[in-house]
Amino acid sequence: MNHKLDLPQHPDPGRTLTVLLSPTRRGARLARLLTTAHLGHLGLPSESAAHIVAELAANAMTHGRVQGRDFQLGLAVHGRALLRIEVSDARGERLPPGPGAQVVPGGHVEWGRGLLIVETLADRWGVTPGPVPRKTVWAELDLVQ
Q: I want to staple 71 with a disulfide (CB 3.0 to 4.6 A). Which of 40, 44, 89, 136 is the partner?
């Protein structure tokens, strides 16, 4: 008797990247550069992913910073169909508004558009609280359309 199990799809370990980065401008820039290099190595398009990572890393640096704690960047390619981006920081009590809840800043305000950019570029995105004291903001890009 043969039984087929439908197991969850896990990314190939060679197609993932997880790194801790300092919550500084340098760490945010490095997150974007690592994303571009990693996806380029895999032969995948990186422009939208690099923009998303830049915005999420900037938010982790600005709103999620806790002295002495890094933020984590995670990239996972699932098959040929999906890229999942995760940025986790140590300010779990500061949850950003979820998808569809962003307000467009008025006039000449120079901040507040990051999650609007993420919402525009990503096929799906959201916020996952925990484990305490962390939170993760994630975005998914469909690679095959």
A: 89
Spatial distance between the Cα atoms of 109 and 63, rounded to a whole number of angstroms: 17
Indicate the residue type of 139.
A
Q: Percent of the chain scored above 90 by pLDDT? A: 56
Distances (CA, A) of 139 to 51, 113, 122: 11, 16, 6
Please calculate the CA angle 31-34-37 and round it to the nearest 5 degrees: 150
CA distance 72 to 70: 7
In this prediction, the residues of the chain whose per-residue pLDDT falls under 50 are 1-8
Residue position matching structure tokens 């933020």: 71
